[in-house]
Amino acid sequence: MNEEIRTLEPKNLWNKFADLNEVPRPSKKEERVIEFMKKFGNDLNLETMVDGVGNVIIRKPATPGMENKKTVVLQSHLDMVHQKNNNTNFDFDTQGIEMEVDGDWVRAKGTTLGADNGLGVATIMAILESDSIEHPALEALFTIDEETGMTGAKGLEGGLLTGEILLNLDTEEDDEIGIGCAGGVDITAAGSYKNENTPEGVSAFKITVNGLQGGHSGMDIIKGLGNANKLMNRLLYRVSENLELRIAEINGGGLRNAIPRESEAIVVVDELQEKVLLAELEEEKEAITAEFSSLEPKLNIEITSVEIPTKVMDSGAQDKLLKAVYAAHNGVYRMSPEIEGLVETSNNIAKVEVKDGRITIKCLTRSSVESSKNDVANSLSAVFELAGYEVELSGDYPGWAPNRNSDILKVLDGLYEKMNNEKANVAACHAGLECGIIGQHYPEMDMISFGPTIRGAHSPDERASISSAQKYWKFVLEILKNIPEKN
């Protein structure tokens, strides 16, 4: 499998990535990849351990002549986001990722690629395995569950690591040096409704919204891409204003950190109002398609006849649901007043599920400012509580405050300009990196983040640039040669 990928340069990086992608590694199910990394470290006769939560740590001594350099922690996360196209037959729990080369890009066949953060993991593996790369003493830290709670970073104990510098390999633009990131909090609204018998004399339809780009709910939120849950709600709200529409079920979105690409709803309407329903849906479809024509050229909205369901949602609960989702903020909430072009605060309405008398709405709120994050969380909580739902806030994690006086930043900034004849983009990002959490355990550690160019992370359109990986690999090797000496 993936033999074409193994011929790419640098071969040691792409071969390790291909090895890694043969191992299923969904978030919260990392047992196989943990064992894979343990065996990898032990086979190299390197000190290897697994901590209490499942993070893997592998230590490698400095190469000759580099013993006086500061110890470096190389850090990436083992888990990956699992998303696939509806027409792709793939089992993430049992199958390895199937990859292909498309010009300058490596893609997966109908699924997420796992370059986030598999290319970072593969980089570290290639360095650990090499007997020719110059480097100081290394501590490789492979964390778990970054994508769905950062529980690996949260559970990391202080005192396990001795490194003074941490290189986080989880940034997705090769000209960017990350010095800060957003924190986040999961918001879950849950409610119930009365399941009523479907009225007589109705027609049933399935409404489908798909073809959206999706993407990373932090890095891509600034693009204003379509959110399948919000678009579906808009369609349902429009037709329910004038018709006796009843909802049987809704299933939209998936993971909190992915902008939802697809949503389906089963609805019924009096058969005498069928033509009016189809006309109003077509009118709203045309309006939405026109609004998103430049951003979402593959947006598809379909209405098809289906078998009449036996139960539907009671009208009072339905009205509250549609108004609550309409009122709940989605997208950019506030831009940073201090860093140009940086999203400070946002929210992603990631999942809306209505089925068997239960309503579940899942959101992920991000912000680099704690008070602003709390403000949005309170706003969403107020909306959902007014609708009668129970609201739970969980998975709260801190941001990473930028340090423009960082010694390792000076090293990377200077090397990048020397190697590329242009300045790097030193920036904070609107995504959840583990640096903020690790920094709580190791407050004196000097941290930086960088990586190769990856597009479409958290969606089946995820792809990694081959030329960028080559540029990035050379950068990594130069950084390791230029680590400052111990004080």
UniProtKB/TrEMBL annotation:
GO BP annotations listed: proteolysis
Similarity-based family: Belongs to the peptidase M20C family.
Catalytic reaction annotation: Hydrolysis of dipeptides, preferentially hydrophobic dipeptides including prolyl amino acids
Protein name, entry field: Cytosol non-specific dipeptidase
EC number(s) from the headed UniProt entry: 3.4.13.18
Necessary cofactors: Zn(2+); Co(2+)
InterPro entries, A to Z: Peptidase_M20, Peptidase_M20_dimer, Peptidase_M20C
Residue span(s) of domain Peptidase M20 dimerisation: 210-292
GO cellular component, one term: cytosol
Originating organism: Antarcticibacterium arcticum
MF terms (GO), sorted A to Z: metal ion binding; metallodipeptidase activity
Keyword terms of this UniProt record: Cobalt, Hydrolase, Metal-binding, Metalloprotease, Protease, Zinc
Pfam families on file: M20_dimer, Peptidase_M20
